[in-house]
Amino acid sequence: MSNQHAPKPHCGTKPTPITTPEGHRPDLGALLKQLREWAGATRQEAADILGCTTSKIGDLENARSNPKPAEAERLLERYAVPAAQRAQIMAHVRQRPRRTPRGTHSNSAVPPQLRRIVEFEAQAVAACYYSNELIPAPLQTKSYAEALISCTESNTAKVANLASFQADRARLLHEPSGRSPLRYRCFLGEAVLHTKIGNDAVMLEQLTHLRALATNLPNLELHLVPFGLGSHVLLGFSPTLYYFRKPAPPQLFSEAPGYRFTRHHAETTRRAIAAFDQLAATAPNRRDTVAQLARQLSATVMPGQLPQHR
User: Fold this and answer.
1) Is the Cα torsion angle 253, 203, 283, 223 positive or negative in sign?
2) Would the pTM of this model clear 0.70, i.e. be above it?
3) Are residues 70 and 186 in the same domain?
4) In this structure, are 70 and 161 located in the same domain?
5) 5 part of a folded domain
6) Virtual CA dihedral for 233, 234, 240, 245, nearest 10 degrees?
7) Residue 9 burial (10 A CB sphere; 0-12, 13-18, 19+)
8) What CATH number should be reported for the domain holding residue 43?
9) Alpha carbon distances (Å) from 22 to 19, 98, 179, 214
């Protein structure tokens, strides 16, 4: 090894060995990033080792592509990763495709930033979401998604494609292939129940679906945040906090109209974790949330027309 790429003193907190229970894969991109930072290496140094651009290193660390085994070996050697952990990581590198699967929605109707968020979501083991206005994509019905997308998109083919793409995200909450269901903690402001997306039939179907999910999915923790709770740190903010297998750190994103996502720094992420924990301690529990949804459904339809709960 040349002096140029000799290991530097490690900085920060040493990553703990990855754990890989059957059926689970580590978040390889985030892990490579944390190992690089722990080793005190820059993206440029990593790029020099592979003879590539820093953009490629960014793609590897953000899960837009996966490294070849030989590339991973060189990076792990530079990062001075212990042999036992290196063997675990390499076993997963060899099992992965070179490119992250894009699924069946490959045309330009799906914005690139939305694709990247979904790629992060597919690697997460848990997520926390808050919105005071809208139901998140993994909990939406297709008709709700179509009505929402139609607010800003007039092309019916694009609306259908985007709605189908968003509907596919719900699979992570059920029995996705090769992994356990995503643990999803969702906080919705009471205004969500009164924000009419589409017509009455769309809202009735969506609220019925939301109640069924809150009742039947053990991995879904749904909280309706009442108006009376007052102000809190997340008010006016639509964040999603993703958790990955250790040692990969949590990642916080916020969404703006037009599928524009902002990735936040570690300090903001720590504040968001505390804010979600505070909301969980003060917001109504699952039973009270389901009861409130039932009351809203009763007010939404005529007596005798309430759909049977399944």
Assistant:
1) negative
2) no
3) no
4) no
5) no
6) 20
7) exposed
8) 1.10.260.40
9) 10, 22, 8, 28
Instruction: Give the pLDDT mean for 15-25.
Output: 41
**Tally of domains in the chain:** 2
Q: How far apart are the first and last CA of the chain?
A: 63
Report yes or no: 116 and 122 within 8 Å, Cβ to Cβ: no
Burial class (CB in 10 A: 0-12, 13-18, 19+), 205: middle
**pLDDT for 178:** 61
147 and 248 in a single domain? The answer is yes
Residue 48 domain boundaries: 20-95
- Asked whether the predicted pLDDT for residue 28 surpasses 90, the reply is no
Q: Is the Cα torsion angle 232, 235, 241, 247 positive or negative in sign? A: negative
Residue 35 falls within a domain, yes or no?
yes
**Mean predicted confidence (pLDDT) in 66-83:** 89
